[in-house]
Amino acid sequence: MSTPGTTAGGTAGQVVDTVRYPLHEPGGPAWRSVVERVRAELAADGCSVLPDFVRPALQDRLRRQCASVAPAAHYRTETVNAYNIAVDDSLPPDHPARIPIQRGNAFVARDQIPRDFVIHRLYTAEAFQRFVADCFRLPRLYPLADPLSGLCLNVVRPGTEHPWHFDTNEFTVSMLTQETERGGEFEYCPGIRSAERENLGAVRAVLTGEDTSPVRRLTLRPGDLQLFQGRYALHRVSPVEGETARHTAILAYSERPDVVGSVERTRQLFGRVLPEHHAAAGRASRVDTLLD
């Protein structure tokens, strides 16, 4: 008989607190209990947080490892909008895409995150992928084939923020690895738009501060796993204060194999592209007809 958290769960079992999150017992009663709770939270407001998902004994190593590669982050401070699209004369004057936002966060690419790091081991663990797929009611998930954006570290330095935006995919998996002294809260507006309706008035009201009632706030801790439906939820990381940067690992998966990011978006985030991105140009597919 295998020991819980080691052989049965493979790599994931060595990284994850399997007492609380039984990845070593896929489909079992304890697994089902956690999955059903996550599904209920996702259905209610599009977000679920699993505290201390990484074993407490590994959390400081997780922080130190990610902090060691943070200096490699690509910085490109720029004026954007919540949709990350170009603005032209076809948009009406009151369109929320015309509201400029400063983006100051930066990203460390996957090829700069060593494979023996705690976060990389978790990202590639089959038991973890199966668990996340089950939480999102998907038959299977595939790690992105993108050598840069499959796994990355989002760095938000003091005095900057990760501004309001929508995700390009329907679900996001992330983990805070380093918290800041003040600020840096995760703020989101669940379901503020849908695949059929942009709901521009509500988005504009949040961006201008005219109506903050849709905004919910989370204070995450290192080692917390966050499952989030960010395609239809406007969200941001509020300005970071103090002396310590906020670090978040983004673990990117897809329902389809061999997914690679676009040339334009990859260059914007990482300052470079690879042959894989040029080879994949034109293969992208969309799940809706929204602006972004």
Give a verbal description of the structure.
This protein has 292 residues and is an alpha+beta fold. The protein has one domain (11-280): Jelly Rolls, CATH 2.60.120.620. It contains eight helices and 16 strands. It has helices spanning 10-15, 29-45, 56-69, 118-124, 126-135, 200-208, 263-270, 275-280, and strands at 47-50, 78-80, 101-103, 106-108, 142-143, 151-156, 162-165, 172-178, 182-183, 186-189, 216-218, 225-228, 234-237, 240-241, 246-251, 253-254. The strands form five sheets. A six-stranded antiparallel sheet has the order 1-12-8-15-6-4. A four-stranded antiparallel sheet has the order 7-13-10-11, with no helix packed on it. Strands 2-3 form a two-stranded antiparallel ribbon. The longest helix is centred in the first third of the chain and has 17 residues, at 29-45. The chain is globular. The chain starts with 9 loop residues before the first helix and ends in a 12-residue tail after the last helix.
Strand arrangement within the widest β-sheet reads: 1-12-8-15-6-4
- Give the rounded overall mean pLDDT: 92
How many distinct helices? 8
- Overall structural domain count: 1
The percent range for strand residues is: 15-25%
Query: What is the assigned CATH homologous superfamily?
Result: q2cbj1_9rhob like domain
CATH class: Mainly Beta
Using only CA atoms, what is the Rg?
19 Å
Second-tier CATH architecture: Sandwich
CATH topology-level name? Jelly Rolls
Structural class: alpha+beta
What sort of overall outline do the alpha carbons produce when their principal axes are compared? globular
Sheet bearing the most strands, described?
6 strands, antiparallel
Helix content: 25-40%
Order of helices and strands: HHEHEEEHHEEEEEEHEEEEEEHH
Q: Which stretches are poorly predicted, pLDDT < 50 over at least 5 residues?
A: 1-8
Intertermini distance: 50 Å
Give a count of the beta strands, DSSP E runs of length 2 or more.
16
